Structures are given as C-alpha cells and as structure tokens.
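Support reply, case 0932

Customer input (verbatim):
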Amino acid sequence: MQGWIKVYTGPMFSRKTEELLIELRRYELAKKRIILFKHAIDNRYGEEYVTSHDGRKMKAIKVSDPSEIYNIGKGYEVIGIDEAQFFDTEIVDVVNRLADEGKRIVIAGLDKNFLGKPFGSMPPLLAIADEVIKLTAVCPVCGEPATFTIRKSKEEQEILIGGYDHYEPRCRVHHHLT
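Our regenerated output:
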C-alpha cells in the first residue's frame, strides 16, 4: 500500500471530524488495520472517543506527544488524527515518516484560530499533504458559506476547548461581528 497524507480542514462545525470518521469506517470495512488518535487536551465528548458534533463517534487513543502516534501507529495501515492543530510541529515529521513507510494518514484540524490566523501545526501539515479538502460551515448571520470561526466567549487564550457554547462559524463578511 502506498502511503499518503489527507487533511480535512476548515472552521468549526464544517464536518471535519465527521468526514475523518466516515473515511476511517470505510477502511475498517475494507479490513484495513486502522487506529485513531486525539490530543489529550480534547475531552469535549469523553476521554475514549472522537465524536463529531452530529454524534458520530469512534474509539480513539489520547496522546499529547506526536512521537506516541509514530510508535503506536506504525503497526497499522491507516492512521487517523483528529484536532491536529493542538499538536506541536513534531507532528509534521511524524506523519511524513509514517506516509513514507506506506501508511495512509487521515487528519482533521482547524486551519485558522478564532482570530482568523493560521492555527498551530496546520499550515505545515497542509503544505505536506497529498490531498487537502477545505470544508465550509454555514454562517448563522447570513446563510453564506463560513470559512472562519468566532469565539462567543471573552477568553483570549488561543486554545479553549469547546463547542457551540464558545464558538460559531462565520463568513468573511461577518467574521468581525462578535
């Protein structure tokens, strides 16, 4: 099997995790050895699962260091990584090595933070990916495609784990309205 890297990206609520889980299930049905990783800080829907906002879920392994993904993942054919923006840039070398070793890597992550700036390790992951699928959500202000995420709460740190309670997708025009 030839290795490659595929990334689903876009704003919050754009189906990134859902698409990741659908793709992993397809490989599972094809009898491929799959594994799914999530960052240790992401506990929105429980500790043992990656769960999409629409309720689709799959068992996952929590890790904080990308080297754990390499060490565990090398025994599998297909490796999923959710919320990749939370990992440091070592994730880039890890997924490159795994793909070079014939693994198929499927990644989901936010391309921009709530300020509209490139987020964490995503820019270099997007650059090395063999395929990038940029998804959109729906802007609740006007109904147009949303490519940004705003934070509804007043916290200012870059990483704040949350869902609809803290975030909302927005189009370019309405991104600055908070």
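We compared this against your earlier run and they match. Two observations from our side: The longest strand covers residues 4-10. The chain has one domain: 4-135. Please reopen the case if you see a mismatch on your end.
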